[in-house]
Amino acid sequence: MSQHSGAKPYLNPYLAGTILGVVLFLAFFITGSGLGASGGLNRLLVYVQNAVNPEHIDQVAYLLKMAGGNANPLDSWIVFLTVGTVFGGLISGLIGRRVKVETNKGPQIGTGTRWVMAFIGGAFMGYGARLARGCTSGQALSGGAVLSVGSWAFMFAVFAGAYALAYFFRKFWN
Amino acid sequence: MATFPLPLADLFGHWGSYGVYALVGIAFGMTLESAGFGNSKLLAAQFYFKDMRVFKVMFTAIIVAMTLVFLTSALGLLDYNLVWVPPTYLWPGIVGGLIMGVGFIIGGFCPGTSLVGLATGKLDAVMFVFGVLFGIYLFGETVGDFGVFFESSYMGRFTLPELFGVSYGAVVISIVVVALALFLLAEKVEAVVNKAPQPKLPGWSKPAAVALVALAAGTLVMGQPSNADRWQAIAAESQAKLDQREVQIAPAELLTYMNDSKIKVIPLDIRNETYYNQFHLRGAVHLPLDKVEDKAGELQLELANTVFVTMSNDEEAATEAWKILKAESVPNVYILEGGINAWLETYAGHTISEDDKVPNPQPDQLAYRFNAATGSRHEAAEPDPHFLDLKYEPKIILELKRAPTSGGCG
Question: Considering only Cβ atoms within 10 Å of each terminal Cβ, which end of chain B, N or C, has fewer?
Fold first, then answer.
């Protein structure tokens, strides 16, 4: 894979997977819970919503659970995990000299198209993650490792959805 | 059993404990980034079979973590019952997964990977994160319209070994072996698609694979701890609580909690169906002794302010049920002191005629005769809490759940 000069290569995927597996195990062993990402983003969003329009929070049951009354949506372990993930990515990127402002895209599309695609794809992801009660990290990875039936069904669904549409989006990536 | 999970809030304080989660997050982010997951092109290449890095990293992580979790559980170091297993909502999970798959191929990230993309300056990742936030916002606004579907096909804490009716060890070793075989297949597929010679695997990969299979085999051979094993591990401490009568609560204490709106009391009636039909407490769940162990997983999912009270005619069967639930790490379990007989004597003694009293009841026999199946319609099923205002020695101490009550994406 092409990278700009000076960047160190990525880890061997099996080595990276082994390290990730040990991190995941330690997360279970220390905290009893696995890893996650979308839950933290969710609470950050609710925090902003609560600051901008607190009345609205009180009208939606789903939001009320996190930010109703005196509840602070940021008062949750998952928020700190998410902030840690961003910092971890930055640290690793700095060590590997891979921090660079750029847009990764297929050669046949422009930067603007890629950004629109990223936003639309993100919206699907965010919506699906809430519906499935978890994202690739929380459901597939963490739930898969502790053998939850729902997590395995979810994991197959994610791959199925992506592979089913891959052909139609080939021009965007290749 | 060792202290598991670590009582983080006791060790570091409420906000201090979050520092541990931040450290876990940093390790998570570093691993994702160094695996190449900040780069959307690399992630999308998975779906064109050019670079199956997503599959390789994810499944290596799953089999390593899974093997370690069930190995340490077999060794009694980790309590699987206290590990957060995402409860199964089958159809919302599958539909949500399909939507996420669509989002993956369009957007090129998943939520976790977009965070490390953002951290390393990838502008497409920044746009993706905004998209995720918008999708989450949209969900919050629309979930009310399909709340029934969102809560549908709920199966609780449901695991693959339960689905297939085999042991945990058997599932663990099967997944490890299948994943390793699929890795070899993925290497071949990549070589064919990229029309390049198959790269040599690093020298450590074979011994590592053998070691993992050996650990999985060890997990299979040792087996997961049975209820009896689990009781053995806590017997000394828990038997002392029984002997010192720290967990047998008076009928009046139970009645107080039944009328406390902040606490959810679930009476667990361990008697046979005949007794249960003749009389039981309002809201009591009929749970014969041989069903108690299977029920434990479901009870684990109750809210943290739930108190379980086992009861039989006297205390005998209720105590056995208490031991089983205690061994399965169900929090806040108590025994009704003197059982249903003591309850009836306290709250119905004045209305029941001497003729309906059994003079010398056998062990675990109901001391009162009921001519009809009154169930919970009997006035003593839910007496007026202030009717007698009995004094009692308070024994219930609510134990907070030590493990987070929601999953990574809760």
Answer: N
